[in-house]
Design a protein that fits this description.
This protein is an all-alpha fold. It is built from 17 helices and no strands. The N and C termini lie far apart (74 Å). 40% of the residues are buried.
Length: 335
């Protein structure tokens, strides 16, 4: 879900911006998704109002959704989506740098370190031509400001994700606590987006009749799949898998964005982009090397079959000799 669905959100954000202001888009998307999840949790009988849960959820929602997603949505108004994807992909490197409890594991694992930097290089390859255009002198100042903001957003996303992994759970664990927390994250972020949109005049300047149908479909997809499904999957996955593995979505998401652009917007895919795709998939392969237990599989293929074959041969020989001995008369056996 976080690989494919989140990769598609780059495309749908562009579609939705045709009819909604950037912060109004975030307000509608996250407040609606959060409210729907809270209503669902209420009918499931989960406890909604728990002070610690709401406090942790509010902090994570502001860091993960309001700061990072708000920056991405706003920056996509004047920056190429390729450059946005490159800067967002830097979060995967920040994960290994800031994940202190796993420093020993991450920095001692050569496949993880190589995979992370290899993946970032692959994302740069994927959008190399757009990167060159983005660094054009005419737009250099705005792009530098946008890249600085995206770097800040990537840091906020990493810090919020690590906080969610290690400190985001309430000490009093209850049934449905993680779902309720995720719902509050989106709802609180939606409130922050709403206040910002109101301050910028996006709400008063909004006109229903000026919104194209494609923008309505896009924001519906962002609410249902991008927020309720993919974001909930991300928060849950952080609890059960290492953060460096989960962060690989920042490398795969741009691939999905490029493929959607080629399929729906008829954008061309160059040979260099295909090579970049292979590099990125190779980096994800390396980062998840231990998760796939490939090292053990390699050892088994080289060592265990030989030992097993020798054991089987000895067993068969012993069985044949024993059977042959039991079938012979006593004098022949003695002879």
């Amino acid at each position: 879900m976080i690989y494919i669905v989140w990769g598609s959100t780059f495309f749908f954000i562009h579609k939705a911006l045709a009819g909604f202001g950037p912060f109004l888009l975030g307000a509608i998307r996250f407040s609606t998704a959060g409210l729907l999840m809270l209503v669902w949790c209420y009918f499931q009988g989960y406890r909604l109002f728990h002070r610690a849960t709401i406090f942790h959820a509010g902090l994570m929602g502001l860091l993960l959704l309001y700061v990072d997603n708000g920056i991405i949505i706003w920056v996509e108004q004047f920056m190429p989506s390729g450059l946005v994807a490159i800067m967002s992909a830097s979060a995967a490197i920040w994960f290994i740098v800031l994940d202190k409890p796993n420093w020993k594991t991450n920095f001692s694992n050569l496949s993880i370190v190589i995979g992370l930097f290899m993946g970032f290089f692959g994302v740069v390859m994927l959008f190399g031509d757009r990167l060159a255009q983005a660094l054009d002198a005419a737009q250099r100042q705005s792009n530098i400001m946008g890249m600085s903001l995206l770097l800040l957003g990537a840091l906020a996303w990493t810090i919020g994700s690590l906080y969610s992994k290690y400190y985001g759970k309430s000490k009093k664990v209850e049934k449905g606590n993680s779902l309720v927390g995720t719902a509050w994250q989106m709802f609180i972020a939606g409130i922050a987006f709403t206040l910002t949109a109101a301050g910028r005049g996006e709400i008063t300047g909004f006109r229903f009749d000026m919104v194209p149908a494609s923008a309505w479909w896009a924001i519906t997809y962002l609410i249902g799949m991008g927020s309720i499904v993919a974001y909930s999957s991300y928060i849950w996955l952080l609890q059960v898998r290492p953060a460096t593995e989960v962060s690989t979505h920042t490398y795969v998401n741009p691939i999905v964005a490029v493929l959607l652009g080629a399929w729906f917007a008829h954008e061309t895919v160059s040979y260099s982009q295909l090579m970049a795709l292979a590099v990125i998939l190779g980096s994800v392969f390396l980062i998840n090397w231990d998760a796939y237990k490939l090292s053990n599989l390699f050892i088994k293929k080289r060592s265990f079959p030989q030992v097993r074959d020798r054991t089987n041969v000895r067993t068969r020989i012993r069985t044949v000799l024993t059977t042959h001995t039991n079938d012979q008369p006593d004098d022949k056996v003695r002879g």
